[in-house]
Amino acid sequence: MTTQRDRRQVFGEVAEAYDDVRPGYPAQVLDLIVAYAGRVPAAVVESGAGTGKGTALLRTLGVPLTCVEPDPAMAAVLARRFADDDLVSVVVSRFEDWTPPPGGVELLASAQAWHWVDPAARTGLAAAALAPGGVFAVFGHEFGFADDGLREAMDDVYERVAPEISDRVDRAHHVQPADSFDPDELSGGGLFGDVRMEEVVTVLPYGTSRYLTLLTTFSRHRLLPEPRRAALHRALAEVIDARGGVVEQKLTTVVCLTRRIG
Ligand SMILES: C[S@@+](CC[C@H](N)C(=O)[O-])C[C@H]1O[C@@H](n2cnc3c(N)ncnc32)[C@H](O)[C@@H]1O
Description:
Layout: H1 4-8, H2 15-21, H3 27-37, E1 44-47, H4 53-59, E2 65-68, H5 72-81, E3 88-91, E4 105-111, H6 122-129, E5 130-145, H7 148-161, H8 183-187, E6 192-207, H9 208-216, H10 219-222, H11 226-242, E7 246-260
Parallel strand pairs: 1-2, 1-4, 2-3, 4-5
Antiparallel strand pairs: 5-7, 6-7
The structure holds S-adenosylmethionine.
């Protein structure tokens, strides 16, 4: 049986491809964070930094940034990317095992990665990482489609070839859910308040081959048995090619903001 731990290790197997094809985050996301915080934070911690897609955005704040990333292969790409950058430090660790600096930081961020942290512990850990009044920002993309016709045709393929990850059964395969948290999970414990949800929409074109590479970076695709994944990707390629060879990926970047009050 596949465990949560197995799933979170799948990214390292495709670290370079992940870095190549996964979309970064729009500048508006940072504008929303800074506007919510009311100022540029003095220091930032990022949980689940991966190869640095969210890091690149957070780095534009120009303040010290600590990236916590447990997967050695992902962390290696991240460390290489920021090798000459004195403001960025990489810690190879799960967020659960990382010790925050005394007094905490003013901003904790997590891009498409908060759902990997132990649900029973993560709210307390987030609060412990933050200074009083510090801001917690979780953001991530929902991968949708600009063309409903293409989406329908692709849904037919999933249903036929890989029904266990079919969108009609479970909306989390090629339409990845954005990383988000349940506001009640945070505010329920009395540690966080003032939860705000924002969205930024962008459309990104992917040619067929690049789109298939993107799919190989999604954990649900990685966990399919190889022959079936290959059959699924062949069938999807046929559908995409028959419709011009481009997938207009509609990215809804969901930004969840909250403040430590406890
Ligand atoms: C979907 S990737 C997101 C990477 C990057 N933030 C981005 O936006 O592209 C999820 C990341 O969370 C990391 N991760 C898994 N378990 C974690 C944990 N317990 N603590 C911190 N990060 C974790 C994975 O290794 C992976 O790099």
